[in-house]
Specification:
It is a single chain. By secondary structure, this protein is mainly alpha-helical. It is built from six helices and three strands. Strands 1-3-2 form a three-stranded antiparallel beta sheet. Helix 2 (25-35) packs across helix 3. The longest helix has 17 residues, at 73-89. The radius of gyration is 19 Å and the shape is elongated. The chain starts with 7 loop residues before the first helix and ends in a 6-residue tail after the last helix.
């Protein structure tokens, strides 16, 4: 299933909803107004956009709208990861790792963490 594209700002809204769902408009607004310089109107506009895109569902409880995600954060990240690899590295994870290792400083601790991750996932060498 191809998930709709969402902007960086919409993703910030979604992170709150994934963490706290079901969550009311007022709760989303309170959280985002404390952590961003957005106005309540901006938050409400983004919630409406996300509903229109089919990313959020809502129900009306008395005079409040309560939002829930239509898909999980894991599903969204899986699609974004795949899209990123396809777009920039022809779908090849090894090309991405090679590029990062060539251009980004990697600490010994990070290298050990990567080795451990690979060993945990592929104890027989990837077979």
């Amino acid at each position: 299933m191809k998930l709709p594209q969402i902007s960086e700002a919409e993703y910030e809204v979604m992170k709150i909803i994934w963490k706290h769902a079901p969550i009311s408009t007022n709760q989303v607004t309170d959280i985002l107004c404390r952590t961003t310089d957005w106005s309540p109107k901006t938050v409400q506009t983004m919630l409406k956009r996300l509903v229109t895109k089919g990313v959020l569902s809502y129900e009306k409880r008395s005079r409040m709208f309560v939002y829930s995600p239509v898909f999980s954060e894991e599903d969204y990240l899986r699609q974004k990861n795949s899209s990123f690899l396809d777009r920039y590295y022809n779908g090849k994870l090894s090309a991405m790792f090679s590029s990062f290792l060539d251009t980004e400083p990697v600490s010994g601790e990070e290298l050990e963490s990567l080795r451990q991750l690979l060993n945990d996932r592929f104890p027989e060498g990837g077979n």
